[in-house]
Amino acid sequence: MLRVDIITIFPDYFSEVFDYGIIRRACAAGLVSIQPHDLRSWTSDKHHVVDDRPFGGGDGMVLKPEPIFAAVESLAGARRRENIAATKRVVLLSPQGKRLTQSIASDFAKSEQLILICGRYEGVDERVADALVTDEISIGDYVLSGGEPAALVVVDATVRLIPGALGSETSVTTESFSEASNGSLDYPHYTRPPEFEGMRVPEVLLTGHHGEIARWRRDAAEEKTKRNRPDLLKKE
Ligand code: 9WO
Fold first, then answer.
1. 175-183 contacts at long range (C-beta below 8 A, 24 or more positions apart)
2. What lines the ligand 1 site, CB under 6 Å?
3. How do residues 106-128 score in pLDDT, each as one tens digit?
4. What is the pTM of this model?
5. In CATH, which superfamily holds the domain spanning 2-159?
């Protein structure tokens, strides 16, 4: 059972997003347990303050270290990266992180506990990244209003890789999502009708000729990858 704990100042943000599809089934099957936690519950002052002004000046506010260290201590049993069990990951979602990949999600799916820290305001005190976090992760090169949407993405990519989460009809490649296909992305898909508003499904897909279909799919996937993601194609 993978335990996912999400530290956020907006726990209600997550109230429905895990209630659909594969994640819902994985929760119901006891493969994963996902719990959002209010960062403010680890404050000790009357007004539950989680942020403060940046040293050195500048706009906006920074999330204070104390409530975050207290939250991780209570959820993981340690308040320094080196004391956190190897089976647990403490993840900070931030634009400065390492880019999330299928391989990282696959590692997360093998852990016993995933603690996701969602930043807000203009940033998080850097001592969190320096001394507490095991993985600082970015989902892409853009700024969000907080780490919450990125935490959703990490949970989604991770949970579907837990053995049993996809059910028996689908199988997950252990390799990276494009590694098994010489760097190409998935091929284009079509369903009925064979003609829609003048647009025809490629004839070869209607023939039942499996060899030609496989070749068409490989070529079409490579063509589209060359156009949209040339960085993925392997050089040989
Ligand atoms: C806000 C801001 C405002 C003015 C000038 C500079 C600024 N930087 C930021 C900023 O980076 N805010 C972050 C918002 C603080 C940490 C949480 N936030 C966040 C996480 N935004 N984007 C992410 C994120 C996480 C994972 N992958 C991609 C983006």
1. 176/101, 176/102, 176/103, 177/102, 178/225, 178/232, 181/218, 181/221, 182/222, 182/233, 182/234, 183/225, 183/232, 183/233, 183/234
2. 59-60, 93-95, 119-120, 122-124, 138-140, 143-144, 146-147, 150
3. 999 999 999 999 999 999 999 99
4. 0.95
5. SPOUT methyltransferase, trefoil knot domain (3.40.1280.10)
